[in-house]
Each structure stands twice: as C-alpha cells, then as structure tokens.
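Suppose a colleague, Dr. K., hands you the sequence of a protein chain of 297 amino acids and asks what its three-dimensional shape might be. Before reaching for any lab equipment, you can write down a predicted structure in token form. Begin with the sequence itself:
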Amino acid sequence: MPWFGRKKPAGDAPSLVVLAQRALAERGVETTVDGHPDDPVHTRLLGADGQVYLLANLAVQVRGENEERRTAIVGAHFDRMLQAHREPAPEELDADELRDRVRLRLLAEDAADPTDLTYARPFAPGLVLGLCVDYPTMVSTLSTGSLPKLALGTDELWAMGRFNSDAEPVDANAEIAPGVLLVEGESLFTATKAVNLPALFGAAPFGTVFAVPHRHLLLAVPLRDADSVPAIQTLAGLLVRVLGDREAGLPGGLLSPHLMFSRHGQVSQVSTFDEATGELRIEVDERFQEALQEAVA
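The predicted structure, expressed as tokens, is then:
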C-alpha cells in the first residue's frame, strides 16, 4: 500500500451504490438505500434481515478504477463480507482460537462505531485501545457485553492482543527522510504498533514523536540528538501532506491529525491542527521541552 496514493480521482459516485446493491442482489441479499446515492461515504445499504452494509471503505478501493474493475472489486468485497457473516461469533471460539485471533487495535475515540466500547483503554488524546478478533475475511471489534462470554479472561485478552498486534507483518519499515521513520502495511493493526514503539525502532531514551493519520500508517522520529529537531519539522510536513492528499484519502477514515510524544509509557499530544487552513502547529509543553533539551545536550 503506497502511503501517498497513486490512483486517479474517483469515478461516478452514484454508480458505486448501484453496483453494490446489484452485487448484493445477485448474492440473494435485497437491500434498500439509506442516505443520498451521490454520497457513498455516508450512504448505507439496509438488508431485509437487518444487516447494514457501509460503502465508505469500498469507495476508497474503487477510486479511479474502470467500470470492469469496479464491478470486480465490489463483487469480491461482498463475497468476503458474506463469507464473514458465516464465521463463528467470538463467544463461540475456544481459548486457543482466541489466543491466536485476538488483536489490540488503536481507534479514534469519536469513531462512528455502534459497538459498545466502554471497556476501551485510553492511549492518547483522541485515541483509545480496543480488542478485536481477526478472522480470515474480516475483523470483529469486541463489545463490552461480549467480554464476560469469551473463553479467555480480560487480562489474557489484553496481553495476547498486544502480542499479536506487535507480531503483525508490515510492508515497509524504513527511514524516508533523515531521522524520519515510516511503518506501513495492509494490516488494519499497523498504526496500533505505536503502542510498542521500542519493538519497531529500538530504545529511545528521550522518547519518540509519532503520527498515526490512519490505520495503515505510522510515522515517527525517535529523539536521539540535535538532528532530531529538524526531523520533527519534516515529520510535521509529511503529516500535513498525508492529511491533505485527497486523491489517496485516509483508508478506514481519520485516526488522528496530530503529532504525539511518547516517553516512559506516557503519550501526549504535541500539535494542533486547523482543518480549515490545513495548518499544523507544534506545541512544546514542559515534558516535551525537557526531552528535547536532553536529546540535544
């Protein structure tokens, strides 16, 4: 997955709703449209059985594709989704299956997800950690009510979730500018690797500045010396570029538009972002200032 998109602008949005509804009908699922057919990001297809089909992620997948490719992508998408509905519920998995499939996942605190996540743990301003079950064809977010029904206790779920998310493969882990590191992958848990930065980049005694604009991307600057200061400025510029890249979009939606600073297990926000102007400003609080002084000494 290229971190800056290479596709052409989106095609005719209404045709996506038509294609999606047709594909589902061909698979025996009749739906009605809830929303405006010209806005697939906010439009839902409602199945007669109560199932809801969202189109936002599908809109990203088909952007810039010709009609033949769009049809194939939409069909494959719903094939996977309908297969996913036949997977066993998390409550039906035994302990070993859960140990293998549970994942920790970084989520936007204000995400439009109907799942009850009152059990989620805070990670940083605007970001929380939840638990998911990773099936072959889908990822299921665990709800608060489901936890007592699972074959593993809560502590083991969190421990195994972190272990498995740390072990998720990535497509790239490279220095893309002096002092600026990029981790990118198809996995929905790529950005979650920010929870354990030393596992990716090694020890950073002065802390790490990082950004997770969407679930597939992590950008970071481990503070090591005086060269880390211009690297942070570069990181800020790259973050603004990702956030403003309308052609690439933000797969899965926006995770966070901010720079974060992590040290000794504590994460804080060190930027503000003006959506109207696209301007990002770095804010140096006392804790961040101390780390910078130690790094350049």
